[in-house]
Amino acid sequence: MSDRIHTLSGYFHEYQKSVADPENFWARVADSFHWKKRWDKVLDWNFDGPDVKWFLNGKLNITENILERHQYTIGDRPAIVWEPNDPNEEGRTLTYKQLFEEVCRFSNVLQEKGVQKGDKVIIYMPMVPEAAVAMLACARVGAIHSVVFAGFSSNALSDRINDCEAKVVLTADGNFRGKKKIPVKAVVDEALETTSTVETVIVYQRTQQEVTMKEGRDYWWQDAISGASTEHQAVEMDSEDILFILYTSGSTGKPKGVVHTCGGYMIYSKYTFENVFQYNPGDVYWCTADIGWITGHSYIVYGPLLSGATSIMFEGVPTYPDAGRFWQVVDKYKVNQFYTAPTAIRALQAHGTDPIAPYKLDSLKVLGSVGEPINEEAWHWYHTHIGKTKCPIVDTWWQTETGGIMVSPLAGITPTKPAYATLPLPGVQLAIMDTEGNEMIGNSVEGNLCVKFPWPGMIRTTYGDHDRCKQTYFTAYKGMYFTGDGVKRDHDGYYRILGRVDDVINVSGHRMGTAEVENAINEHPLVVESAVVGYPHPVKGQGIYAYVICDMKNRTEQNLVGEIKDTVTKIIGPIAKPDKIQIVPGLPKTRSGKIMRRILRKVAEGNMDNMGDTSTLLDPDVVDQIIEGRIE
Ligand code: ATP
Ligand code: MG
């Protein structure tokens, strides 16, 4: 824990050091890990290729830094605590020692099935401990895992299998989600009809629902591990060997297979975990994400386990059996750090505070938010009703591509401001760019968010298509990684993410973030959620089209629309007043809970013929309802 920052001045000091001499800074962090062979050179890079390498010729296995490392010191500490979907079912705990054995067993199974270093393994599993075991076993044998969220359709799954030419699929019979029992293996079967590379499927039995097993291809997980040895020698990996491929959520287009490598990712996920959450040995930490997202990779599995933390893994949903489920789990395990997404906070907020009342929540020390800008109202609700005003909120900005958190308060150290991700972590050199390609210096500026120097956890390529990586991230601004997000740096030098650049609306020359307008709309007491997009406007250049979910009470639509416009005028000014407000039953969201604004933009533009790739939408029906109610 030598790299832990404890004070605000300590943060500024570390930040300075990381900029003045990045190689030395990260080498010092990397020194606290176990390497089979130390690196020759810390960093080699150019952003034109792009070609970025960290810890060159270093040899390691990330799982040795989780399993071998902790077995004698904290072997009996719970590593993964699993809470099932149904509160009446008993949970499970894997201590570090037990996790070690399970990972070894499954590593042996993988090798027995012919899996070798560099082979691709798809993990399409519910939130059970075996999903984490599967990831670690892949890493241990040198296979490249690609986790696909178990709610994705067979099409989305086969696309990903084909894109990375996977040899093995790890899955389950089914998945318990709230009241539902969802087929999983059946989706795999369907996906495999349009793929040709998969030789082996291993099926974890979870729901006991009926499945078809194909002789010679499909095996039960439980059978496969029964005779396997609990000892296994980790395969030696190079720092720059691929650890995993993860497809982005697809909210802006066709998902990209983001590639992360062993050495840099290991260092970055642990360093950021310990500092942002101010993790202390013995703390119980819970991240509610699914392991199918980068948040689950870095902050359920790798970061916490590298740190020796107790990481809770939750199979269920926030509203089953009722909207108090999260808080019941927090009390049950005395959770210290709780990390979730604004979409979950807003959904729970809509249920009011009654579901929270039965719970103490007094174990909580830190609250976290990730995935979207958190609007001020949700921030205050979270802070007041969950954190009881004593828990700092870490609003963590980052991306699948960044591997770990980039901009965030350090809990309890960095003074927070609602809706601000605040300051960059050490090693993160941000630049705000104007549309002409100039860096905007100083405070009180707004533009496109870039990073001008490599950090260890960054994307190396998009799998199988390096040019796509270059085009998407490294061409907009020469010599910089472009995040795709708009940002504002305020008078204190604090960063506020405005949403995706494509979503920044330009009304009569005034640039506005969708997040900012939504924030204002959400201040109306009857608004549950909103999404704002721009559309071509003959006079203003762009007009503002707002889609709003409301609790109608006994208001008429006309009344409500008028009140919402007034609210926005009052909070931001008349320039931000939406031109059109459509009351909608729901919003098109990706399965990770993000609003797919490109669809809303098409509807607003009246361009409904080609909606693009909607395979990652949670509920495609909502799109038809929105089209029906469209305002001309
Ligand atoms: P795709 O790249 O396929 O469109 P995606 O960008 O939604 O998908 P992720 O990598 O999961 O996939 O999400 C990263 C994005 O989420 C960021 O670029 C940003 O727009 C948003 N985001 C994440 N955290 C925050 C935050 N704390 N505040 C504001 N925005 C955030
Ligand atoms: Mg993205």
Automatic annotation (TrEMBL):
Molecular functions per Gene Ontology: acetate-CoA ligase activity
EC number assigned by the record: 6.2.1.1
Keyword vocabulary terms for this entry: Acetylation, ATP-binding, Ligase, Nucleotide-binding
Pfam families reported for this sequence: ACAS_N, AMP-binding, AMP-binding_C
Ranges where the Acetyl-coenzyme A synthetase N-terminal domain occurs: 11-65
Alphabetized InterPro entries for the sequence: Ac_CoA_lig, ACAS_N, AMP-bd_C, AMP-bd_C_sf, AMP-binding_CS, AMP-dep_synth/lig_dom, ANL_N_sf
Domain AMP-binding enzyme C-terminal positions: 516-594
Domain AMP-dependent synthetase/ligase, residue spans: 69-454
Domain of life: Bacteria
PROSITE patterns for the chain: AMP_BINDING (PS00455)
SUPFAM superfamilies: Acetyl-CoA synthetase-like
Family to which the UniProt record says this protein belongs: Belongs to the ATP-dependent AMP-binding enzyme family.
Protein name in the entry: Acetate--CoA ligase
Source organism: Cyclobacterium jeungdonense
